[in-house]
Amino acid sequence: MVFSVFENPIAYCAALFVGLLLFMELGRRIGQNRLARDPEAANAGTGAVDGVLFALFGLLVAFTFSGAASRFDDRRAMIVDEANDIGTAYLRIDLLPTASQPALRDAFHRYVDSRLAAYQDSSGIESFNEAFGKSKLVQSEIWKLAVAAGQQPDAPPAANMLLLPAINNMIDITSTRATAMLFHPPLPIFAMLIGTALVCSLLAGLAMMRSRSPKWIHMVGFSAIMTVTMYVIADLEYPRIGVIQVSGFDYLLKEAVQ
Q1: 112: closest CA among 225, 254, 222, 3?
Q2: pLDDT for 148-172, tens place per residue?
Q3: What is residue 161's DSSP assignment?
């Protein structure tokens, strides 16, 4: 659901923006009808309810935004961690016999290319799984080459003791990053966030009941800010698809094998 927002973000944002405007205008007209029937009691006793709902909406936005920003930072940190793990393992290839090094270095370069391909293709989870599968094949090749090289007669005794744990760390971080892609708030939270925004728009419109004409500056401003906020939250949650990207850190993987 949220992923599909980025297939046509303008349409989804426009729909949300228009929906907020319509609910606000609907609230204003409902309020005017109440005001015509009972001018004195039209909005009596509603302040507490309005305050609770707007406070709830503020908390939902704050916690959802904070969680999305935190996960965004975690994903960037994981790219740095993977680059460090790859770089450490790549440097320790120097411990192996000279004849065994070219094949391993070539496998490392292909491995980094496969890792970049897995995350730079944002067409869907199926393409990611396919590219991730190719990475695992290269991982297996790297492991076998390293084990075989460490067993050569001219290999230093400490070669595998130092190289294999580094390769193991390099492999482990791939699972951590893949799992992190699935860490998002449940869809009902996004639905609740949008639903609460629409209800708050309705209440904001009710507060404008005494206005003979729509207050477009307030209505458009509120709707625009809410729409942008919702988009940014979703964008932070899916930083390989929208405007906010973690791909700027991908160069670290390339540099790790240079």
Answers
A1: 254
A2: 998 898 888 888 899 999 999 999 9
A3: H
Q: Is 9 within 8 Å of 2 (Cβ atoms)?
A: no
Number of domains in the chain: 1
For 210-229, write each residue's pLDDT tens digit: 777 788 888 999 999 999 99
Residue given tokens 């050569």 in the structure block: 152
Q: What are phi and psi of 146, to 5 degrees?
A: -65, -45
What does the DSSP 8-state code read for residue 94? G
* Amino acid code (one letter) for 87: G
Query: What domain range includes position 90?
Result: 2-38+59-95+167-256
Contacts of 171 (CB under 8 A, 6+ apart): 139, 143
Answer yes or no: is 183 within a domain: yes
Q: Average pLDDT, stretch 132-153?
A: 92
- For residue 126, is it within any domain? no
- Evaluate whether residue 124 is within a structural domain: no
Distances (CA, A) of 178 to 50, 70, 73, 182: 42, 17, 15, 7
Whether this model's pTM surpasses 0.85: no
Rg, C-alpha atoms of the chain: 27
The answer to whether position 197 is within a domain reads: yes
Calculate the average pLDDT of the chain: 87
Tokens of 70: 């935190």
pLDDT at 8 over 90: no
When pLDDT is averaged across residues 39-64 and rounded to a whole number, the result is 80
Cα dihedral 105, 107, 108, 111, rounded to 10, equals: 170
Distance (Å, rounded) from C-alpha 222 to C-alpha 204?
9
Residue type, 111: Y
Q: Are 228 and 17 in contact (CB under 8 A)?
A: no
Residues 104/166, Cβ–Cβ less than 8 Å: no
